[in-house]
Design goal:
about 40% helix, 7 helices, about 230 residues, alpha/beta
Length: about 230
């Protein structure tokens, strides 16, 4: 995990804490490249709104062994504990995963399996993915968005998928379409973080699961049987 000095914005007001999770498995990786572009675009969008932010990056590749150890022991090694703290304590998330077999990577899923299941309640999340072909682009809608919806996060409307063909060949990874999607999703995330925009919950949100009662099927059946018969 490292902090990008260029991502800490100057400006008035309390800096918004944004954590970027990149699950790329190579170095360098297009996943990290997309994460960098999204972070920069979000920073720029917040700058326009007069909001400062501090952006922290969490790379999952160096944490792969720690994630596996935590899954089998129940205890996070120090580096992983710091990463989980960065995710659970931030005000917004940007998450980027490579696509394997039409879904997010196992490393990405395993990491978020370790995040407290109420920690992201109401938290704005920008979802993004990279893959070899545009055929995987719906992974945002059938895999990432449902997962963060389950975690009760607020997923921005525009997700960003970047296939190999979206990156240029001349050294500049931008095409016209990809930066447009990056800019639109970053603007949506920035709007959720701007002053006067209430955040729906956050790190201190209560755990709704503990207050909800799951009514068993037997009780539903008893209630139906207790109703007077209609004539």
């Amino acid at each position: 995990m490292n902090e990008s000095p260029a991502a800490v914005l100057a400006g008035d007001g309390t800096p918004r804490r944004i954590t970027v999770v990149a699950a790329g498995l190579s170095d360098p990786s297009s996943t990290r490249l997309l994460a960098d572009r999204l972070a920069a675009a979000t920073r720029a969008a917040l700058d326009v709104l007069g909001v400062s932010c501090a952006i922290e990056f969490v790379e999952l590749r160096p944490l792969a062994r720690d994630i596996a150890a935590h899954l089998v022991t129940g205890y996070p090694p120090p580096a992983l504990a710091t990463a989980l703290g960065a995710v659970e304590g931030c005000e917004a998330l940007i998450v980027v995963t490579p696509v394997f077999t039409a879904s997010y990577s196992g490393l990405f899923k395993s990491f978020f399996d370790l995040v407290e299941n109420t920690a992201l309640t109401g938290r704005p999340v920008l979802i993004a993915a990279t893959g070899g072909t545009s055929r995987h682009s719906l992974v945002l809608e059938h895999a990432l968005r449902p997962m963060f919806a389950y975690l009760r996060a607020v997923v921005v409307p525009t997700g960003v998928y970047a296939a190999t063909t979206d990156w240029g060949n001349s050294g500049d990874p931008y095409t016209e379409e990809l930066p447009r999607r990056i800019g639109r999703s970053a603007a949506e995330l920035a709007a959720l973080l701007a002053p006067g925009t209430p955040l729906a919950g956050g790190p201190a949100s209560p755990a709704p699961d503990g207050d909800e009662e799951v009514v068993s099927f037997e009780r539903h059946l008893e209630a139906v049987r207790a109703r007077p018969a209609r004539r």
